[in-house]
Amino acid sequence: MTRLLLGIDAGNSKTWAMAGDMSGRFLGWGKGPRGNHQAREVGVAGAVEAFATAVEGALAQAGARIEEVARASFCLAGADLPSDYELLGSAIHVHWPSLSFSVHNDSIAGLRSGTSRGWGAVVVCGTGTNAVGRGRDGREVQVGGLGYLDGDYGGGGDLGRDAVRASFQAAFGRGRETALLPMVLAALGQPSADAFRDAIYQEALRPGYVLDLAPLVFNAANEGDEVAQEILIHMGTELGKAGGAALKAVELDQADGAEVVLSGSVWKGKSPLLIDAFRLSLHRTAPRAVHVRPRYEPVVGAYLLALEFAAGQVGPSEVANLEASLPDSLRIRSEEV
Fold this sequence. Notes:
The chain has 337 residues and is an alpha/beta fold. The protein has 12 helices and 10 strands.
């Protein structure tokens, strides 16, 4: 009987699962709905259902059964605190009583999809932000990840909110002039700052509109707007502190070539200032660290975690088999980052 491994990556929009064998060979892939148990409309039961849908798809493509799975790694959005791990682990065990598995925060899948050695750190900058370190011994430490009151700053939400704030400060004489003001008004179809303010307080704008404004900060920065540039520099500085703290938490801050994976869509912004500020800030804590991009979709990182546990390590032959068998849909092309 072929010993199979599963990696599951569950996020706020979708859940993916990947099946592979002990040699690193890809065998199947499946997709399910959003799997964050913290979402009110999902809950723990809905999250496990999403996991199961993705797993069933991966096993069907692999032509295998759950009984053939030697190990599974669940990398889950919303797995932030020990209570989350206990809650989710118990629910997974109830659904698959004989399955050997581990539960991780979903950022660990992003970390493992980018590091060449399986240890280092990841700094997520998407809708929000998170930073996690993984030591040489496999110990994982999350730094923040719960929002502004937890010390976080970063992501598309914060960029959009800062663009709105800077626009109002400029419009009403409380801040410097900025190209963000006309850009934001045009993007939202607002004729004036007064009309925009009224629309906010009357809740007339579409939900999540601030996320659509994040690219404007990069555009304004590239046009030489100092306000936009300072927003990016501030965010990069804070994210660099988070990455350095994550490395330090797992005793890698002085390691030569410790890799910090940049995961999330905001890192793709067109201005270099975000990453420039990130690197400077990171190197104040971890002077020999390097930043890298993910090579694969996070679900592949989840599978590699399962392979590490089952095989002890992921060596050159396993990497070669993965490279030879992995479909393009699970790779991240250089132009995507």
